[in-house]
Amino acid sequence: MKNLKKLLIATTAICSATVGAYAVELEVTHWWTSGGEAAAVAEFAKAFNATGNTWVDGAIAGSGGVARPIIVSRILGGDPMGATQLNHGRQAEELIEAGLMLDLTDIAEAGGWRDVVNPTGLLDSCTLDGKIYCVPVNIHSWQWIWLSHQAYADAGVAVPANWDEFVAAAPALEAKGITPLAMGQQSWQTSGAFGVLNVAIGGLDLWTKINVNKDAEAAASPEMAKVFEAFGAARSLSAGSNVQDWNQATNMVITGKAGGQIMGDWAQGEFQVAGQVAGTDYTCLPGLGVNEIISTGGDAFYFPVNDDPAITAAQKELAALMISQPVQVAFNLKKGSLPVRGDIDMSTANDCMQKGLSILAAGNIMPDGAQVLTPDTTSRVEDLLVEFWNDTSMTPAVAQEQYALIISEAE
């Protein structure tokens, strides 16, 4: 018995030493800093910390446009973080080709990612030369407009059911001092709204010709002219929306200071933190109530290569956790996004998430722009759209002409 006790004590000591030796602090960089985003990312941190490792939060304020250059610079400069958020698509392509990102193929195969990720295109976006380099964590769609019930009640008009009704109701809101369209003053917000209008007004076929096939004639077509005219109308309807960040624009909708906001489904997290209820306090219209379709972009986590086996083990453990069933549910309910797994129960999701899930189940999906355009082309388009948005003397026709040129030179 004494020998058995000694053996148990020794075994316990060895196990404790082993955990202590391999438990690591892992810095995770991301740009989730709003209230809803912080609540969601905390679910990742909680799950990782429960393994005995420590999540070191590396939040970078200012959206992806600010964070991505910092993230890339650190990796290239030899100061890599343990894990980092990027959008799944082509943003990390050059880093992968340079051998700077950890190959996760073994973890993906062990977890059966190919069988559970839905749509599979999300995993394809993490794959290069047959190897998987990132873990997709959500499906975020840009194709939404969020409408304030309070704003329309104050203006004495019905909540719009589509984009045409939204435009028609604008004068009533303006008469009450309410901004029809809330828009933050950042390039990715205006370009995102443009993409939503492109699909809603121009249709998916036109969007595909331009963004996937790089068809410059389609970009210069009369059908695309209607999209630019709608974008010009959106510019006029946003006059008076002088906030900077997207969540500040969302807050204008929440507080009834604006009628609506074209923004991705991450806006749901802000409504949730504010205690608002979908269908009661706000309405969500996928595809602007015109074309009910959702883009299947979103966020993924990459893991820079390092020479410490303990860190590598922790990186792979975090990757597996992020796509596990319980973490997918907890994270996405807080984030307002759809899960990347098709085999989990989301019955507790709110009305807007249920709309998204139904559209996904019906297969009415499209790729995100980040999945089909290079960062260089995306940057050029954003610069043009920001110039148009801020310079009211630029006509939609002039902007379209320059846009068609960019598409003609796209890779």
Could you characterize what this model shows?
With 411 residues, this protein is an alpha/beta fold. It is 54% helix and 12% strand. The protein has 21 helices and 13 strands. The protein has helices spanning 2-22, 35-49, 63-76, 93-97, 105-111, 113-116, 121-124, 149-155, 163-175, 187-202, 204-211, 216-219, 222-237, 246-254, 267-273, 309-322, 325-335, 351-362, 369-372, 375-390, 396-408; strands at residues 25-30, 54-59, 83-87, 127-128, 131-132, 134-136, 144-148, 179-181, 258-262, 282-286, 294-295, 299-302, 365-366. Helix 8 (149-155) crosses helix 9. The model is unreliable at 1-21 (pLDDT under 50).
Give the gist of this structure:
The chain has helices at 2-22, 35-49, 63-76, 93-97, 105-111, 113-116, 121-124, 149-155, 163-175, 187-202, 204-211, 216-219, 222-237, 246-254, 267-273, 309-322, 325-335, 351-362, 369-372, 375-390, 396-408; strands spanning 25-30, 54-59, 83-87, 127-128, 131-132, 134-136, 144-148, 179-181, 258-262, 282-286, 294-295, 299-302, 365-366.
